[in-house]
Amino acid sequence: MESKRLGRRTAAVVFAILAAPPHGVIFTERAAHLRDHPGQIALPGGSVDPADGGDLRRTALRELHEEVGIAAERVTILGELPMVQQRRANNFDVTPFVATVAPGPLTIDGSETAAVFTIPLAVIIEELTHGTVAVGEVSVETYLLDYESRRVWGLTGQILRKFIEAWNDPANPLRAAVEATLIA
Question: Which end of the chain is more exposed for a tag (fewer CB within 10 A), N or C?
């Protein structure tokens, strides 16, 4: 499913929360050789593929499996956040899905992923800030989170902000859905 807007590409990511304590959210460090955003921190996900049949959930689950080895059977998709538009290069329209992941191993695909790590959900909710990041000669205003020598910012920072907004909105059922699937 290509975006209807000329020149834009469609992608999906998973805000994947481990069901077991401390309920870490899965992030990847993109491989240095990748064309799009090499070395950056991201949520598992990527571009829609014709095999996905236009289903963004299928895209998100396929990418989660390819990048960190999580089979769809371990994933419970609980909701969808509003689409986020990439502001600069690559012109992606990204749909984030919120999911919990049953316990089990993570397996890195070295062709796409340099590392996988988690940030506790509570840290994301409490410590996401707004600031600037230098990108070459340009300062970019962004949501950002520094955690254990890694910096989450840009499109991923925007998605974290969308999640926090949904989490804190009493009219949004997302928080109750997430909390109902977490293991105490």
Answer: C
Residues with Cβ within 8 Å of 110's Cβ and at least 6 positions away in sequence, in order, are 31
- Name the pTM for this structure: 0.91
Specify burial of residue 175 (Cβ count, 10 A radius: 0-12, 13-18, 19+). middle
E strand or H helix that includes residue 181: helix 174-181
How many angstroms separate the CA atoms of 83 and 92, rounded?
10
Question: Cα torsion at 160, 163, 167, 173 (round to 10°)?
Answer: -170
Mean pLDDT, rounded, for 76-99: 89
Please report where in the chains the tokens 């950056």 appear, as a residue.
40
Structure tokens at 95: 């749909």
